[in-house]
Every structure is written in structure tokens, then in C-alpha cells.
């Protein structure tokens, strides 16, 4: 696949990440491609679905398995806006994905080289080709904007609570 194709699919994943953001979830999007066809897509939904496994990657893999009617997702590429966590990296190995392309690194929980490297571990029974940095700045900016907005909302909530307490105290 060419770099332009990688950028095209990463932009697709960024659009999915916007859906997560609109639902108040951490904005991560994932799209699973076989050939030039989408066979699975997902965005973060653990909060809304009350499901700790409802990460963007997991949603895309589940859909891909149903489309292919197979738990092995051979000859596929998974595009994700953020480096996968340990859970998602494990699922990527088990599903036999051929290639992972991600945007932004996740220094705190990334399991494709940042915190640890599940995908490149020599003991794994399947090796996934990993490429990173595709539209990394846009992917990272979406996440940092989201967390900045969330911090501002929490700050505003605390301020409003303090003011309400002061008004209750004075009346």
C-alpha cells in the first residue's frame, strides 16, 4: 500500500474518532481494511456501552470477524489513530492481522513499542508488520484537544460547586 493510501485510511479513522468525541468518549478511531475494502470499523465506546473492552480496535476486529465469518483476519490492515493498548495488541496478534498502521504514540499505555512491544515480541506466534506516525500530528492534536476540554469542564464544575456552596453559606 502506498503512503497516500495509508493517509486516506487514517483520515477515515480520524472521522470515526470524531464520533467517539461527540459521544463524550476518548477520540480514537479504527478501520480494518482488506484490499481496498472496509470490513470493520469502530470508535471508542467503553463509557457508553459500559464495556471496558469497547475500544475502537476491538469494535473493528469484531465487525471484521463477522464480515469474513472467521476469527482469523488474514491479509488485513488495521488503521488506528492511537497506538493500541495491551488488550488491543493481544487481540491484533490473535486475529492474525497482517499490518497495523497507527497515528499517535501512547507513551503511557502503548503496546506497540512505547510502554512495551507486544506486537514485536519474539515469543509471539504471529508477527504483525507495524508502521506508525501516519498523520501523527492530527491524531495527537485531536486527543490533546479532547483532554484539554475535559480538564476545563472539570475546572468549571469545581468552580460552580464552590460558588453554590458559598451562596448557600451566605443565605
Keywords:
171 residues; tRNA-specific adenosine-34 deaminase activity; 5-stranded mixed beta sheet; hydrolase; metal-binding; single chain; alpha/beta; APOBEC/CMP_deaminase_Zn-bd
- Please tell me the overall pLDDT: 94
Shape designation: elongated
Classify the helix fraction into a percent range: 40-55%
Assigned CATH superfamily: Cytidine Deaminase, domain 2
Structure description:
The chain is an alpha/beta fold. It has a single domain (6-170), classed as Cytidine Deaminase, domain 2 (3-Layer(aba) Sandwich), CATH 3.40.140. Helix content is 47%, strand content 17%. It has five helices and five strands, in the order αββααβαββα. It has helices at 3-22, 46-49, 56-68, 86-94, 136-170; strands spanning 29-34, 37-43, 77-82, 99-104, 129-132. Strands 2-1-3-4-5 form a five-stranded mixed sheet. The model has no long low-confidence stretch (mean pLDDT 94).
Topology:
Blueprint: H1 3-22, E1 29-34, E2 37-43, H2 46-49, H3 56-68, E3 77-82, H4 86-94, E4 99-104, E5 129-132, H5 136-170
Parallel strand pairs: 3-4, 4-5
Antiparallel strand pairs: 1-2, 1-3
Summarize the structure.
This protein is α/β, with parallel strands linked by helices and 171 residues long. The protein contains 5 helices and 5 strands.
Amino acid at each position: 500500500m502506498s503512503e497516500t493510501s495509508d493517509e486516506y485510511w487514517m483520515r477515515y479513522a480520524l472521522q470515526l474518532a470524531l464520533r467517539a468525541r461527540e459521544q463524550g468518549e476518548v477520540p480514537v478511531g479504527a478501520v480494518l481494511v482488506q484490499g481496498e475494502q472496509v470490513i470493520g470499523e469502530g470508535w471508542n465506546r467503553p463509557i457508553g456501552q459500559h464495556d471496558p473492552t469497547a475500544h475502537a480496535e476491538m469494535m473493528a476486529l469484531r465487525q471484521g470477524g463477522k464480515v469474513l465469518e472467521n476469527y482469523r483476519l488474514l491479509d488485513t490492515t488495521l488503521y488506528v489513530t492511537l497506538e493500541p493498548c495491551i488488550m488491543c495488541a493481544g487481540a491484533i496478534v490473535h486475529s492474525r492481522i497482517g499490518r497495523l498502521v497507527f497515528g499517535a504514540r501512547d507513551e503511557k499505555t502503548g503496546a506497540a513499542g512505547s510502554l512495551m512491544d507486544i506486537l514485536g515480541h519474539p515469543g509471539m506466534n504471529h508477527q504483525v508488520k507495524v508502521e506508525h506516525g501516519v498523520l501523527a500530528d492530527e491524531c495527537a492534536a485531536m486527543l490533546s484537544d479532547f483532554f484539554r476540554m475535559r480538564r476545563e469542564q472539570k475546572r468549571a464544575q469545581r468552580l460552580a460547586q464552590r460558588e453554590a456552596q458559598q451562596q448557600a453559606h451566605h443565605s
